[in-house]
Each structure stands twice: as C-alpha cells, then as structure tokens.
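Researcher: Quick sanity check before group meeting.
Model: Go ahead. Protein one:
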Amino acid sequence: MNTTETKKLPVTIYAESTPNPNAMKFVANIGLLKDVSVEYTSKAQAKGSPLAQKLFDFPFVAGVFIAANFVSVTKTNAVEWESITLELRSFIREFLANGGEAVAELPEKKEVSPEAKATEDKTEVSTKANPVIDAKIIAILEQYVRPAVEGDGGNIQFKSFEDGKVNVVLQGACSGCPSSTITLKAGIEALLKKMIPEVQEVVAVAE
C-alpha cells in the first residue's frame, strides 16, 4: 500500500441553469465559503482563489462567483453551455476532490483615497442618517431576497439608503442578467416599498 497516495474527497457537483443565459451554477456537496461570498472578473483579480485562477485558464470563462456551496461561472458569448458544462463540472469536481481550495485568501478591501475619504466623510451624515431603516432593509434582504438570489447563483448586498433610494450590489449570475431589472423593480423594490414606506426606489450600483 502506498502511504503517500493522496486520498480523494467524496465530492459531487451538479450543474444548474440560472436566469442569466451566460451564467451556470455548479453546486457542491461540500462547503466552499462560510458567511461570505467573492466575485472575480479576471485571473489577476482572483489571486486569492486557486479554483478561480484555474477556471480563468479556460478561454471562455469571463467571471467566477463563489459562495457557500456553489460556484457560478459566467461565460463569454463565443461558446454555448451544451459544449462546456460537462467539462467545467468535471474540472471543478476533480479540483475539489484532490483537496484544492476554492478560496485561500479573501480579497482585501479597496483602499480609499484621501479625496474620496473626505467626500465620504461629508456624506456620512446623510447616508447613515437612518440606521433603523438601514437595519430593516438589511433584515428583509437577508430573510426574503438573499435565499432566492442565491438559488439563482448570485448574491445581493445592501450598500446604502438615501433620500428614499436603496442602493444594492448584484453579484454572480445576477450581475448582467437580462432579467435583473425586472427582479429589482417587480420583486425587490415592490417588497421593500410595501414593508418600509420610506423606500421609494431600488437600484443596482457598482461595488
């Protein structure tokens, strides 16, 4: 018996389509991240994720989003899912089964320039003037919206609330999805306006 032989983990992966025609969700039977999610749009950006680094070696991979137990891969328009889904599913399964890490190091928070910090300080009173409403919005997003969004291979993050407008960040399969505007307006915005009278609008912004 070869004692140096690496024992593979019992990993299974299944592919699941998302509302975004360019994104596919690959669900694992093991945990990949806990309480956080990460999104990469280039190999250089993915230096903290061995899995994402390898996925960007595929010429058709345009984005990688990793959450609790799934990886959402966004492809280019050059190929169809029918020709690459099996290849990606097998690759992800083998990578994880061989002990590869999905994320070794979380991305560092972007540094804020002194000029931006000064502007941020000036607007802090207005953007954080409603901590009670902020907390209500976050609670509703966590309870009612996030589970559905994660089910579609994406994520939603609360960014700010000011002058009746809720700013959120869409990630993973939800980013760039043709139906995201409908989801925002007919779903999330309608829900928040119904439960919080102060909310007038919900918009997606850059992270």
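Researcher: Fine. The other one?
Model: Protein two, sequence then structure:
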Amino acid sequence: MKKGILLFSAVALLTFSGSFAQQTSKKAPKAKVSKVVAPTVQGAGINFVNDVMDYGTIELKSDGAREFVFTNNGTQPLIITNAQGSCGCTVPTWPKAPIAPGATAVIGVKYDTNRPGPFTKTITLTSNSTTTPSKLLTIKGNVLPQPAAAAVKS
C-alpha cells in the first residue's frame, strides 16, 4: 500500500512539474540603446558630450577639477589652438596634439573653490573645427561658505 502511494505521488509530481516545463517564458524585448553620434563633418569637427558642467553645491576649498569630453566627428585632425577661461579663477587645459578623426579627448577645467557663493564661468575654445571654430563651454555651481566656528563656552 505504501509503495502504491509513493508511486502515485511520484507520477503525479512528474506530471505536474512537466506541465510547467512546457511553458515558455515571455521576456520583454530589450530596449535598444543608441549612442548619440554627431554626423560626420567634412574637415575637422568637435562634438561635446555636454557643454555645460554643473558642479552642484560643493564645499569650500574642495576639488574644482572637472573634464569636458569631446570627439572629433570630422574627417580631418582637430587642432585646438587655445582655451581661455573667463577669469583667473577658471583654468582650462587642452590637448596640444592633433585629435584624429573619431578620437575622443578631454578639456580639463579647474575652478578655484576658495571663493564662496554661486558661480557661472565660461571657457572659450579656439580650434580648426569647420562647424564651430570658437566654442563656449560653461561651468556653474555654488561653493558653500566656510562653516562658522563652534561657540566657545564661558
């Protein structure tokens, strides 16, 4: 009798689990991720991922270094001849060597975070880009004031 119950249970279990094995899972199709690529231009081209860098709210005397990433979307090498900050508190760095077509590079910028308060500064790039020989990049944010000294107990 016990063998019969065990045999019936085993057959029922196999039948039950087999019916679920026949079901196919329906997965949602994967979303296509498309890269934003600027069209190729004749001559040298410059295409930035972002031309505005928002620092957000940062601490006084914190690291003010950031990078703007760009790609030469042209058919000729891109040469950046100058990068000028709008004031002495904004210091840009740029690649001095030509950037090959399709290559990616960065424009570095260091903001002096010793100055509390909101800021909006610009960096003007000069290059041989056929579409934008003069490009304006913007940095903005807010530097928190120095914390007040703790009150001294008398």
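Researcher: One line on it for the slide.
Model: The domain at 47-140 is CATH 2.60.40.10 (Immunoglobulin-like).
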